[in-house]
From TrEMBL:
Protein name as catalogued: Class I SAM-dependent methyltransferase
Keywords recorded for this protein, A-Z: Methyltransferase, Transferase
Annotated InterPro entries: Ppm1/Ppm2/Tcmp, SAM-dependent_MTases_sf, TcmP-like
Highest rank taxon of the organism: Bacteria
GO biological process: methylation
GO molecular function, one term: methyltransferase activity
Length: 271
């Protein structure tokens, strides 16, 4: 199977994977994900041959991945008995990058066709389960052991959900576990509203379905849910330290435009 057999929003996993693969070829990578490079090469052997193939402008997506990894490592260090729900996992190798102890049970969830690709390209491991389902069909949650701390990670997923579906997801996760951390990224309302004209999303035949001007606002949906903080993305110190000079220049210019520094908001909640 190739990514040509993926449809619509499933195809959005490719540019993120390509960014991670290209990052790994920097002399001092931000994420340093060898799995991404190997998987990308198998998915598309010519991934670096096209017009924008060698561009590193996707590096902010790599910064996002690093922020999620850092938060996840912190949570798992404090909760070695946790259950991890990695939702909309695409072909991201987070479980291998983080390499949690055997006391952690990790679940990667995405559409069945994406999970099938994962099975071909990424290795299995102990205490690691793949779930092929839409995240909005919450019956998958019944398969997860409760009574333990939960870490929910949704990288690059939430803008593709409707607000109603996101709300049902978050409140169901909070109701199902005694304590936990929920981390995801969102876009502001302007990015959601204009997404129907976004050339990349149009190419994949998809668009965003929700956005938040106050990314802390989902905390209002459940009395136990509390907003913690936000990680920087387009102006992140690691991007400015490690991206090639031409890429840093583009981001510096872009960040002068209103709203661009926070065109994606990486946020963390706890309960
Ligand atoms: C932008 S990609 C991000 C992939 C991965 N998290 C990463 O950062 O590399 C979005 C992913 O969300 C998945 N996705 C979108 N809507 C979904 C849904 N309703 N249920 C399950 N997965 C979904 C897509 O199939 C895709 O793999």
């Amino acid at each position: 199977m190739k990514d040509t057999e993926l449809v619509g929003v499933q195809k959005t996993l490719s540019p993120v994977l390509r960014a991670k693969a290209l990052d790994n070829r920097l002399p001092d990578p931000i994420l340093g994900d060898e799995y991404a490079e190997r998987t990308m090469r198998r998915l598309d052997p010519d991934y670096d041959q096209r017009r924008f193939g060698t561009s590193q402008l996707g590096l902010s997506a790599v910064v996002r991945a690093k922020a999620h990894d850092d938060w996840a490592r912190g949570f798992l260090a404090d909760h070695p008995d946790a259950v991890v729900l990695h939702l909309g996992c695409g072909l991201d190798a987070r479980v291998h990058r983080i390499d949690p102890p055997a006391t952690v049970d990790w679940y990667d969830l995405d559409y069945p066709s994406v999970i099938e690709l994962r099975q071909r390209f990424l290795p299995p491991r102990e205490h690691y389960t793949l779930i092929g389902s839409s995240v909005t069909d919450l019956t998958w949650l019944e398969r997860i052991p409760g009574g333990r701390p939960v870490l929910m990670i949704a990288e690059g997923l939430v803008p593709y959900l409707t607000e109603a579906d996101l709300r049902r997801l978050l409140t169901s996760v909070v109701d199902a576990f005694p304590t936990g951390q929920i981390q995801f990224d969102t876009v502001p309302v302007w990015a959601w509203r204009t997404s129907k004209w976004d050339p990349t999303l149009r190419k994949y035949g998809t668009r965003f379905h929700c956005g938040f001007n106050d990314p802390a606002s989902p905390a209002d949906w459940h009395p136990r849910l509390e907003y913690v903080d936000e990680a920087p993305m387009n102006d992140s110190p690691v991007l400015m330290a490690k991206a090639p000079a031409n890429v840093r220049r583009v981001y510096r210019l872009m960040n002068l435009l209103p709203g661009m520094k926070r065109s994606t908001r990486i946020v963390r909640f706890r309960f």
